[in-house]
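Human:
Class, as today's exercise, you are to examine the entry below, and be ready to discuss the fold:
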Amino acid sequence: MVVYDRTYEMVAVIRGFTGPLVHLARPTGLEWQSRWVSVRPGTAYEQRQLRALAALHRLRHKGLPVG
């Protein structure tokens, strides 16, 4: 599920929950935890933003050696 974290002002995807914390991740590999009260469902615009970020990340890393 795409969400917006008000604390970090970033769009992310929920990876899991631990008590009052939500585990969030972005397509770039950035992962963090935030309190569930600071997270809200992402808007249609924010969902498109996250898809565009994922496409840009794939494009920039295309052809780079692994490791």
Notes: The chain has a mean pLDDT of 93. Residues 2-63 form one domain. The chain has one domain: 2-63.
